[in-house]
Amino acid sequence: MRLKNILIVVKDIEHSKQFYHDLFGLNTILDNDGNVILTEGLVLQDEKIWKEVLNKDIIPENHASELYFEEPDIEAFARKLEKLYPNVRYVNRLMTHSWGQKVVRFYDPDGNLIEVGTPM
């Protein structure tokens, strides 16, 4: 058995597709009316569909999970993030952990937590 995809819930599929393409270079593999599969296995699910499937409220910024990306040139990524999405909500701006890894944490437009760090 293997993990196939990671699904996140979004309010605006088109905006989220653009966001993940702009920052991470993820491209659309399949766009199936409210369910979009991007490269690297990330799936965007329309919030309305997900609420219907679960019959539960969606809780953004729940801090129960994060998407983790690695980027060797983290300073360039941080500049790109600030330029393309100046209103992004940060958990922490670019910082260095005690073990030497540089990271930035922020939310996507729907409150999904993202961490970008230098490779360890």
TrEMBL record:
<feature type="domain" description="VOC">
    <location>
        <begin position="2"/>
        <end position="119"/>
    </location>
</feature>
<dbReference type="InterPro" id="IPR025870">
    <property type="entry name" value="Glyoxalase-like_dom"/>
</dbReference>
<protein>
    <submittedName>
        <fullName>Glyoxalase family protein</fullName>
    </submittedName>
</protein>
<dbReference type="InterPro" id="IPR037523">
    <property type="entry name" value="VOC_core"/>
</dbReference>
<dbReference type="Pfam" id="PF12681">
    <property type="entry name" value="Glyoxalase_2"/>
</dbReference>
<dbReference type="InterPro" id="IPR029068">
    <property type="entry name" value="Glyas_Bleomycin-R_OHBP_Dase"/>
</dbReference>
